[in-house]
Amino acid sequence: MNAVPSFDMKRQHEAIRAELDEALRRVVDSGWYILGPEVEAFEREFAAYVGTAHCIGVASGTDALTLAVRAAGVGAGDEVITVSHTAVATVAAIEMAGATPVLVDIDDRSYTIDAAQVERAITPRTRAIIPVHLYGQAADMDALMAVAKAHGLTVIEDCAQAHGARYKGRMAGTFGALATFSFYPTKNLGALGDGGAVVTNDAGLAERVRLLRQYGWRERYVSAISGMNSRLDEMQAAVLRVKLRHLDEWNAARRRIAAVYTAALENVVPPAECAGRTHVYHLYVIRSARRDALMASLKSRGIGTAIHYPLPVHLQPAYKAIAPPTGLPVTERIGREILSLPMYPELRGDEVDAVAAAVRHAIVE
User: Residue 70 needs a FRET pair 20 to 30 A away by CA distance; which of 14, 185, 206, 333 works?
Assistant: First the structure.
């Protein structure tokens, strides 16, 4: 058992147990469990929080991306540019929509997509760009939107790790034609199981996502288009409504913890908070040339850590066919050096200090 676990969901749930119990009891008593009033209310509330006109709740973040790509009219024969330094879900979703992922390198400070690399990767088949707002920090949206506009490409933001993050004062998720969120339990806004959402300001795209998430139905049992089954359930929506009320408070706590880490750590590279971007620290990711030794040392001291992500998508067996022939040197170097320290709003001050001290001690061994 780690003295400081890398993540602890129980602490969060204990703090809001009464609110969660009431929300779940409300759903059980309602007798309505799929696409009912809780989902509708959450969709309104989350759209208002992000600052978009529409939110469509779906079954997972992966489904959200797949549906967004399909809703944008991207499919077989089309290319979608994204990164290899991401959860494999980003790439899997493109493939599930029938399109071809094209992987490009990242910026070595923010670890997000490099707009210059995007420009070089565009071909006549390119239809969309999916920037991943990684670890809680938005990608360089000014540069990306300029590239997209110049080439007539659709931008779909992957906000799975960026609930509440901002770029030059605007919420992540308000730049592209569509944006997607995951509510996997460990996210800044997490459900008690899987869940996701697509947000957009385009009424036509919103309607298409709604159709696609439930068999293409405009009326029950009649498919207007070919769709799938990807519905956010009432239980998860009720939980998310409770947690959404606390999200800004929790993000502020994450930022306070990150500030303590950054001030205290030595001889490792801390996360870079880029100018104009408000980082919400879904993860606190450091870099060290001695990453594996550091990780082992922290484990021996009861400090939980993780690697997000240890193997870039293009180096995984299932995706070697789409690996760029010259590799992705920044992505590959970062993958060998990164380490995620414990990061969740309920971390106590003494635990944060213990993590920082353990990192400093390990480095000087």
Answer: 185
State residue 365's pLDDT score: 62
Q: 264 with 353: CB under 8 angstroms?
A: yes
Q: Which backbone phi and psi does 340 adopt, to 5 degrees? A: -95, 125
Instruction: Give the count of beta carbons closer than 10 Å to the beta carbon of residue 308.
Output: 18
pLDDT at 1: 52
pTM (2 d.p.): 0.97
Q: Residue 363: its pLDDT value, please?
A: 76
Q: Are 133 and 155 in contact (CB under 8 A)?
A: no
Distance of CA 63 to the CA centre of its chain: 13
- In the block, residue with structure tokens 């089954």: 229
Beta-strand runs (E) in the chain: 54-58, 79-83, 100-104, 126-129, 154-158, 166-167, 170-171, 178-182, 196-200, 217-219, 222-223, 277-278, 284-287, 338-341
| Cis before 111 (ω within 30) | no
C-alpha dist (Å) from residue 299 to 45, 62, 233, 295 = 41, 31, 38, 6
Q: Mean pLDDT by 10-residue block, N- to C-terminus, for the chain (365 residues)?
A: 88 97 98 96 98 98 98 98 98 98 97 98 98 98 98 98 98 98 98 98 98 96 96 98 98 98 96 97 98 96 96 97 96 98 98 96 77
Q: What 3-state class would DSSP assign to 296? A: helix
Encoded tokens for 215:
């068999």
Domains of the chain: 9-244 (3.40.640.10), 247-364 (3.90.1150.10)
Query: Cα separation of 119 and 123, whole Å?
Result: 9
